[in-house]
Design brief:
Elements (H helix, E strand, L loop, with lengths): L1 H15 L3 E7 L9 E7 L2 H17 L6 E3 L6 E5 L3 E7 H7 L1 H4 L9 H4 L2
Parallel strand pairs: 2-5
Antiparallel strand pairs: 1-2, 3-4, 4-5
Helix pairs in contact: 1-2
Length: 118
């Protein structure tokens, strides 16, 4: 339940900074790395950084540790490790190249749209 709360906080933070095409993948039983992956993108370096910063700050404000954040300065692919939730914030140009959705295609999608509207 705590992981779902962290997922909701991170997804809302991304949405607040107008991240595009936000997806959450349920990685339970698929990956030992995390229970959930969030994948989204921004349209500029500044927006990618704003999304990543907001996710980090909102997680910390709610008492969650940010284990690691990589790629922030380059702003092409920022990885935010929140423990059981790992967020991938791409620059629009990089997202289709790496195509994590296809790589983890066997992972079920989490319905985050109901979370954003609640």
């Amino acid at each position: 339940m705590e992981n779902q709360q962290l997922l909701k906080i991170a997804v809302k933070a991304a949405d607040d900074k107008r991240a595009e095409d936000i997806l959450a993948l349920d990685m339970n039983g698929i990956s030992l790395i995390a229970d959930y992956f969030i994948i989204c993108h921004g349209n500029s370096d500044k927006q990618v950084q704003a999304i990543a910063r907001e996710m980090k700050e909102k997680a910390q404000e709610n008492g969650y540790d940010v284990k690691r954040m990589e790629g922030f300065d380059e702003a092409r692919w920022v990885l935010i490790d929140l423990g059981d939730v790992v967020a991938h914030v791409f620059h629009r140009d990089e997202r289709s190249y790496y195509n994590l959705e296809r790589l983890w295609g066997d992972a079920p999608l989490v319905d985050i749209h109901s979370e954003l509207n609640s």
